[in-house]
């Protein structure tokens, strides 16, 4: 049996709609309710062994025997536990996306996702990544909107040497994908921010060392996303993670975290909910373990399209979820706590900012997250020339250089501009993100990153004399999944193939908590409106000009 296509971050497209709990009496494959008998093929291969065992088979066998020798359950299944996906066969058009199976859509080349918890890199690690990209990945390198780096065009024969080089500088691909705890999003300014609510550096490090590769959490119903921040900018998109810890000041207990669970986008988007519980810094590890174990033990394993934590939360509600967490997993009550305060400042950290030690950090916008092997090496060189050894990636596809002496800021900015890294970007270069799209993704219907670059160039030309006082975010997806978070953008575009035409369906007015809006909200679909790639620049220009003409003072796009 061929496993279902599950190439990038999302499940195969299902009917869109609200997230609802299950019908009563249905066997949903919850381990604690109905036992551990696998109810689908994914669950079968996950039950056979620890999926991380495939790492040794890749090193000992497949890298020597070649792509054709790899069994389907490994190449289309367990490889994901090591961050490896087969990439889309070149030349297979978007019309074929939902008609072909995983094997027919797959190339013999791989995408390798490298997990960077908290987006943290040293300049040495960045240089090694650049070298791997140049030597094995045709100089590809994309910054994802989850603080990862993704390389393309990898051959199975080169994987052991790539992993050796990553190991040598303390980088890993372990659980970068698969039904596992994926990369831990962390505030990219943790430890250097001038005035945080709380510095989450130790909590993030504890999560990483305790849980990456931990066999207790290697077989979850589906992917599981975590975020932690203590920044007043609310910079880790906490509303759309399975579990989030958001910095708050408790009036009696001091700084700690507000606990959120059950957020996720995809085709049935749902923002996370607060449990109303305060998590002291020393409780982050046990609370994370408890929430993740609830997902492992009670998550719905029967259908992959219903296997995210948001579906369980829809059935239980936040009160029951908190009760189960306290009674069955922690054995004690958590104190009530306050909600996060309204965001202050821009969560993407672009531009020049004060650190807590007199140095500066500088945030650079890319073009839809795209870098290259050469650009990574140039980034490491420029950062070191500016006296820095530390780089961070953000959940907004941005790059930060930390620890820059004030006198080196200008030279750093000049050195990185030719590589497409901009500290003073135009509004659309700053706030446009795009997913992988048809260039490499097997679920895509349309091209995305090249289109994003074209629209950005067009907007820079056409709107150069127009003042855009508030950021307008443009997010472009290659399919109805939501790797580029279209429902949380001012203008969100969803690639589809309808009636023998490639089009984008438009969502307007979404956004996450920011200085412009107290709470996140999902955009509304503009029914009947379908835009082709050729018409996209005209559409974005028209919407932008209309918004600027019609908005009242200080009105944001979401309020318009
Ligand atoms: Fe994700 Fe884009 Fe691929 Fe769809 S096309 S699965 S949104 S990367």
Automatic annotation (TrEMBL):
<keyword id="KW-0408">Iron</keyword>
<feature type="domain" description="Nitrite/Sulfite reductase ferredoxin-like">
    <location>
        <begin position="353"/>
        <end position="417"/>
    </location>
</feature>
<dbReference type="GO" id="GO:0020037">
    <property type="term" value="F:heme binding"/>
</dbReference>
<keyword id="KW-0349">Heme</keyword>
<dbReference type="InterPro" id="IPR005117">
    <property type="entry name" value="NiRdtase/SiRdtase_haem-b_fer"/>
</dbReference>
<dbReference type="Pfam" id="PF03460">
    <property type="entry name" value="NIR_SIR_ferr"/>
</dbReference>
<dbReference type="InterPro" id="IPR006066">
    <property type="entry name" value="NO2/SO3_Rdtase_FeS/sirohaem_BS"/>
</dbReference>
<keyword id="KW-0411">Iron-sulfur</keyword>
<feature type="region of interest" description="Disordered">
    <location>
        <begin position="1"/>
        <end position="36"/>
    </location>
</feature>
<keyword id="KW-0004">4Fe-4S</keyword>
<dbReference type="GO" id="GO:0051539">
    <property type="term" value="F:4 iron, 4 sulfur cluster binding"/>
</dbReference>
<protein>
    <recommendedName>
        <fullName>assimilatory sulfite reductase (ferredoxin)</fullName>
        <ecNumber>1.8.7.1</ecNumber>
    </recommendedName>
</protein>
<dbReference type="GO" id="GO:0050311">
    <property type="term" value="F:sulfite reductase (ferredoxin) activity"/>
</dbReference>
<keyword id="KW-0560">Oxidoreductase</keyword>
<dbReference type="InterPro" id="IPR051329">
    <property type="entry name" value="NIR_SIR_4Fe-4S"/>
</dbReference>
<dbReference type="InterPro" id="IPR036136">
    <property type="entry name" value="Nit/Sulf_reduc_fer-like_dom_sf"/>
</dbReference>
<feature type="domain" description="Nitrite/Sulfite reductase ferredoxin-like">
    <location>
        <begin position="107"/>
        <end position="168"/>
    </location>
</feature>
<feature type="domain" description="Nitrite/sulphite reductase 4Fe-4S">
    <location>
        <begin position="177"/>
        <end position="333"/>
    </location>
</feature>
<comment type="similarity">
    <text>Belongs to the nitrite and sulfite reductase 4Fe-4S domain family.</text>
</comment>
<keyword id="KW-0883">Thioether bond</keyword>
<feature type="compositionally biased region" description="Polar residues">
    <location>
        <begin position="1"/>
        <end position="10"/>
    </location>
</feature>
<keyword id="KW-0479">Metal-binding</keyword>
<dbReference type="InterPro" id="IPR006067">
    <property type="entry name" value="NO2/SO3_Rdtase_4Fe4S_dom"/>
</dbReference>
<feature type="domain" description="Nitrite/sulphite reductase 4Fe-4S">
    <location>
        <begin position="429"/>
        <end position="552"/>
    </location>
</feature>
<dbReference type="InterPro" id="IPR045854">
    <property type="entry name" value="NO2/SO3_Rdtase_4Fe4S_sf"/>
</dbReference>
<comment type="function">
    <text>Catalyzes the reduction of sulfite to sulfide, a step in the biosynthesis of sulfur-containing amino acids and cofactors.</text>
</comment>
<dbReference type="GO" id="GO:0046872">
    <property type="term" value="F:metal ion binding"/>
</dbReference>
<dbReference type="Pfam" id="PF01077">
    <property type="entry name" value="NIR_SIR"/>
</dbReference>
């Amino acid at each position: 049996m061929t496993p279902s296509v599950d190439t990038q971050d999302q499940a195969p497209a299902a009917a869109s709609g609200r997230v609802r709990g299950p019908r009563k009496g249905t066997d949903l494959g919850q381990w604690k309710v109905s036992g551990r008998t696998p109810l689908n093929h994914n669950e079968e291969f996950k039950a056979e062994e620890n999926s991380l065992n495939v790492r040794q088979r890749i090193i000992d066998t497949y890298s020597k025997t070649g792509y054709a020798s790899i069994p389907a359950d490994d190449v289309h299944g367990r490889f994901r536990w090591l961050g490896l996906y087969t990439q889309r066969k070149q030349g297979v058009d978007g019309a074929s996306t939902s008609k072909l199976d995983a094997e027919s859509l797959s190339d013999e080349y791989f995408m390798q996702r490298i997990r960077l918890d908290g987006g943290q890199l040293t300049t040495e690690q960045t240089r090694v990544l650049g070298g791997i990209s140049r030597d094995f990945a045709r100089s590809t390198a994309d910054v994802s909107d989850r603080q990862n780096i993704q390389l393309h065009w990898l051959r199975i024969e080169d994987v052991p040497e790539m992993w050796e080089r990553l190991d040598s500088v303390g980088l890993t691909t372990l659980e970068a994908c698969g039904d596992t705890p994926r990369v831990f999003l962390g505030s990219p300014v943790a430890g250097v921010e001038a005035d945080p609510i709380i510095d989450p550096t130790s909590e993030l490090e504890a999560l990483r060392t305790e849980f990456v590769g931990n066999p207790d959490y290697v077989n979850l119903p589906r992917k599981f996303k975590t975020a932690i921040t203590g920044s007043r900018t609310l910079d880790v998109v906490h509303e759309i993670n399975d579990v989030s810890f958001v910095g708050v000041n408790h009036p009696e207990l001091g700084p700690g975290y507000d606990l959120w669970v059950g957020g996720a986008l995809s085709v049935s988007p749902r923002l996370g909910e607060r449990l109303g519980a305060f998590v002291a810094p020393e409780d982050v590890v046990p609370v994370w373990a408890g929430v993740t174990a609830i997902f492992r033990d009670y998550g719905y394993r029967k259908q992959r399209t219903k296997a995210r934590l948001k579906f369980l939360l829809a059935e239980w509600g936040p009160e029951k979820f908190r009760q189960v967490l306290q009674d069955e997993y922690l054995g004690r009550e958590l104190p009530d706590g306050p909600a996060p305060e309204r965001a202050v400042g821009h969560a993407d950290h672009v531009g020049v900012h004060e650190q807590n030690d007199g140095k500066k950090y500088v945030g650079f916008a890319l073009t839809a997250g795209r870098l290259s092997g050469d650009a990574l090496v140039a980034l490491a060189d420029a950062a070191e020339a500016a006296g820095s050894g530390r780089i961070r990636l953000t959940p907004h596809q941005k790059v930060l250089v930390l620890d820059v002496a004030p006198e080196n800021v200008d030279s750093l900015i000049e050195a990185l501009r030719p590589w497409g890294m901009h500290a003073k970007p135009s509004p659309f270069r700053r706030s446009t993100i795009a997913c992988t799209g048809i260039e490499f993704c097997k679920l895509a219907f349309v091209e995305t990153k090249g289109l994003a670059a074209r629209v950005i160039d067009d907007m820079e030309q056409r709107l150069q004399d127009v003042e855009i006082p508030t950021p307008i975010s443009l997010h472009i997806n290659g399919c109805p999944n939501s790797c580029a978070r279209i429902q949380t953008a001012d203008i969100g575009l969803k690639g589809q193939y309808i009636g023998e035409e490639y089009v984008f369906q438009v969502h307007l007015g979404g956004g996450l908590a920011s200085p412009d809006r107290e709470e996140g909200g999902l955009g509304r679909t503009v029914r009947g409106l379908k835009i082709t790639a050729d018409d996209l620049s005209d559409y974005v220009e028209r919407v932008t000009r209309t918004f600027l003409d019609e908005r009242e003072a200080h009105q944001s796009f979401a309020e318009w």
